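Weekly sync notes, structure subgroup
Attendees: PM, AL, DS (notes)

Item 1: joint prediction request from the bench team. They want all two components modeled as one assembly rather than separately. Inputs as received:
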Amino acid sequence: MTRMFTLAFAFLAVAAAAAQAGEFPAASPERMEARIKALAKFGANAAGGVDRVAYSPADIAGRAYIKGLMQELGLEVRIDSGGNIIGRRQGREPDLRSIMFGSHIDSVPGGGNYDGDVGVVSALEVIDLLNAAGHVTRHPLEVVVFSNEEGGLVGSLVMIGALKPAALDVVSHSGLTIRDGIDILGGDSERLAAAVVKPGALKAFIELHIEQGAILDEAEIEIGVVEGIVGIRWWDVTIDGFANHAGTTPMNRRRDALVAAARLTLAINQVALEMPGRQVATVGRIRAEPGAPNVIPGRVVMSLEVRDLELAKMEQVFAEIEMRAAKIADQTGTSIRFDLIDVDSHPEPTDPRLRRIIARAAQMYGYSYRLMPSGAGHDAQDLATITPTGMIFVPSRGGISHSPREFTSPRHMANGADVLLGTVLAIDQGALDN
Amino acid sequence: MTRMFTLAFAFLAVAAAAAQAGEFPAASPERMEARIKALAKFGANAAGGVDRVAYSPADIAGRAYIKGLMQELGLEVRIDSGGNIIGRRQGREPDLRSIMFGSHIDSVPGGGNYDGDVGVVSALEVIDLLNAAGHVTRHPLEVVVFSNEEGGLVGSLVMIGALKPAALDVVSHSGLTIRDGIDILGGDSERLAAAVVKPGALKAFIELHIEQGAILDEAEIEIGVVEGIVGIRWWDVTIDGFANHAGTTPMNRRRDALVAAARLTLAINQVALEMPGRQVATVGRIRAEPGAPNVIPGRVVMSLEVRDLELAKMEQVFAEIEMRAAKIADQTGTSIRFDLIDVDSHPEPTDPRLRRIIARAAQMYGYSYRLMPSGAGHDAQDLATITPTGMIFVPSRGGISHSPREFTSPRHMANGADVLLGTVLAIDQGALDN
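Output from the run, pasted for the record:
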């Protein structure tokens, strides 16, 4: 059904862009790779990756490099009060709203050279291709580099007016508070409201990013059409049994909190595995108390994380886990308590029209594609609350990310840039207007 | 079968002691309770228990109190070079070997008033009863207070010549090394060989102790006849899977080390629970790496402890666990490795004749009894390597030990002392000589 509709829609709306894209040169794997390598020098570490945490000297130097490129490409560059870099290319029709696209260049500590960077380099590539074709779009275009993505989507939260005031006092990996970090980037932490983009003020937002999973890589698919960014909920799970002497307490008289925790861990895995859908549920942290080899654990504290594209599904998964936990507690003579931790991450679907536009652009270039959720968080989830938002994934080898071992081939990066160009042109030609 | 044999044996050998015991006054619950309370003052803590770790001023003061009692009771008191207190009562026949009985008075940090203490107080009670009856045994009697039981059975290991030289450098809870601790008690760490008792040099050894399990308490049985002290083996278990992003890695592509660890934890529990016998197996400590709620654990390290009265059974339990681990590793795409940790604790059965003698003594006094293993370690396990050894358990409320909440009623202590007296008299009358 969806595919049928996609083709019908494509016929009506993307036809103009499709034809037009033929006039543009293809994205250059060599140029993109050269820019990735140039960017990799800022904060380079011994493992071949980067330590370019937000607000660090490496981040500041990397941003200067990108600003320079933007200026060479003819963009008007400004820093908004949230520290986001925005490079603007004027359109032919002054009354139209901007089409924004981009990503981030800050890294986690011990990060790699592709997470975020590929999205920024592909956005610049789109400008290069437009310049080469001498094409001026109807809408203004804005290439964005969000500030401090890895530290909690800070720049995009400022842009949508949703950064909590308390977040400003958080000390980032750079050693600076987020407040001081924003200011050191050229933002203005006292006037964050000035950076806020009102709902409806943008025409659309598109982010290209490496997949950070192995789905595309293993299936040898070139383009991921992101259906949305999953929501995340965290709980602390506390299992109380009874600590006792591991030598003198017979097996059938134990209320072993770790045995109950083991059953719950398997139940959590099973619920997520067997329920139809692509939800995930993970126990990543566990501690048994008192934690001695010769004492039966009296208490276990462990984490539970649930992610899905739909809030209702997340609630369904948790309800099923809670029900099984009650049975396990009953059968093991323990009590099990779930404490919800506020991680404030709701699922954000991408715009269904943009999914179809991206898919059509991939088809147009002859690239295989696949609809998929984003299991990781991205700035796009913030922008999705104020404007039609789409996301394009390119394969990452082995699904590795947040590691110096991240890798996306120049060919895959260029494919992504082609699809990003096709998408921008389709939007510019009115593909979102029906 | 066993019970039949016990009665037959009792008829032949214990008859004399049985008759004789009638001439003795019964143990005094009041006197025993008063001595427990007096001892509780040395190292008393706010929780109502004691911090009387070996070699501490509280331990030294408590020992002085016991030595004083021994002297009041007419015993010849000496400290052997291992710091053990030995109070000797001469027998009628100078060529006979000593019957030794006793326990320890040092505690764990935050310990209670019964673990060890009840064994020492009941040994003194036996002397009191013999004195009251004006009875001199054929064999010399030796009441022993072993040094530093809680720190690794130090005094009894010295006595059997098995303390490893490296142990002398271990820093005990008192802050002193074991070497300095032995010396501060009046021992002589340079001449430990002088304390060694050769195999066969004692007639027998009997230790009375609180059960430290809830078996007697819950079944309302008065006396535990200990079949032996279980052996203990420890392993570090390492499960290697593959750490990955908890958001982007689908459930069916995970190699989650914690899911494998959960399955193994349940398998361990099941093997120990379902195999016939009284073996126990425990996972008391667990750590997942990297240990973040949003990362699938790539590695889990956990402890495994197995205890049983028979080495062959311990090996059988481990073999079954190992077999199941291989299956789990195979099914979960992980590897599981077991590293044996040297805890050097072999099972030590008590002397079967002494089990029958103790059971007969309990019957003689009209106390209910039950054969049972000791899941905890005791000095008796060391003495068992050089002399026929027996152990008597008395109930501990709720099985609690190593806690200020330890409690054994005066009545149960006195019952134990009666049985200890009956056992000593039976041995003295030749019950071991057939």
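Discussion: The radius of gyration of chain B is 24 Å.
Action: AL to compare against the crosslinking data before next sync.
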